[in-house]
Amino acid sequence: MIVVAEELDPEGLSMLRESGYPYLYEPRLALSRKDLLTTLPSATALIIRNRVVVDEELLDLAPQLRVVGRLGTGLDNVDQRALERRHIPLVHAPALNARAVAEYVLAALFHFSRNLTKAAQGGSRIELGGFELKGKTIALIGLGEIGLRVAALTRSLGMHVVSYDPNRRPWEAAVELTGVVLEPLETVLGEAHFVSLHAPLTPETRGLVDKGFLERMREGAYLINTSRGALVDHGALAEALQSRYLAGAILDVTDPEPLPDEHPLRTLPNCVITPHVAGLTKEAQARISRKVIQGVLEVISVPIR
């Protein structure tokens, strides 16, 4: 049986139905670890997003499991070594939501620069005019698939794009073609009007955006996080926004997720928090579902119709 424990796009569900293979589609299992674990003894495949944690405990209770499908890009909720020890393949869809996330970042930039919602509420027309993005500098912390797409989109607006990514080299074709300037972290933070986070969550990047990081950012700059909430010290960010040292922040991811209603960030007018939707366009979800479901069915040897 294929257990789908989180939301799946209709195209993916259609593929499961057409395969004829028995499956259980129950997204609420992601909210109850206990209920999820009770379904695993008969599971030959498990399909998840970012809420279900695949660890030793879960795998020990799934003796028939032959494959795990991850609907998305990040893999920090999956113990890949535990899967490897059991020879269980992991099917995921890296980069298939990259365009969606990049366009979200673009939307965030326009929100900062023009803020149509605030303008619609009225006030001084001069004060509500906003500013242009052309000529401004955006710093990309991490230059993977999403970062490269953000670079291409923002360059087309006439923005200057700099990046800090210790794993990239200036002579790489992808870097050269997008016109990104690789610089040390200290330099990009001091230059940028906007800082957009695109680094994976690792022991090295956890808490990367701390008080010191924020203090090195340009005064009046903006922060965008579409990567992982744990990259950011939320207490330090709240202080930077309250003092108006930073002009604003848009967070699509938080730690924990969702952020508690009483958290200071939720009370700040210059902080916008969205519920992890950057990569959830209809088009991206269809692409990801097709890729992951096809991969899972291939592993368990179900012909694709």
Please, could you describe this protein's structure?
The chain is α/β, with parallel strands linked by helices. Helices cover 35% and strands 14% of the residues. It is built from twelve helices and twelve strands. It has helices at residues 10-19, 33-39, 56-60, 80-85, 98-114, 116-120, 145-156, 173-178, 185-191, 211-216, 234-242, 282-299; strands at 2-4, 23-25, 45-48, 67-70, 90-92, 137-141, 160-164, 181-182, 194-197, 222-225, 248-251, 271-273. Strands 8-7-6-9-10-11-12 form a seven-stranded parallel β-sheet, with helices on both faces. α1 (10-19) runs parallel beside α12 and α5 packs across α7. The longest helix has 18 residues, at 282-299. The model has no long low-confidence stretch (mean pLDDT 95).
| Number of helices, where a helix is a run of at least 4 consecutive DSSP H or I residues | 12
Strands across the major sheet, in which order? 8-7-6-9-10-11-12
Approximate helicity band: 25-40%
Q: What's the helix-strand series?
A: EHEHEHEHEHHEHEHEHEHEHEEH
Strand content: 5-15%
Mean pLDDT: 95
Quaternary structure annotation: single chain
How is the biggest beta sheet arranged?
Answer: 7 strands, parallel
Shape: elongated
User: What is the strand tally?
Assistant: 12
Distance between termini? 18 Å
Q: Pairing-aware structural class of the strands and helices? A: alpha/beta
Rg: 21 Å
Spans where pLDDT lies below 50 across 5 or more residues: none
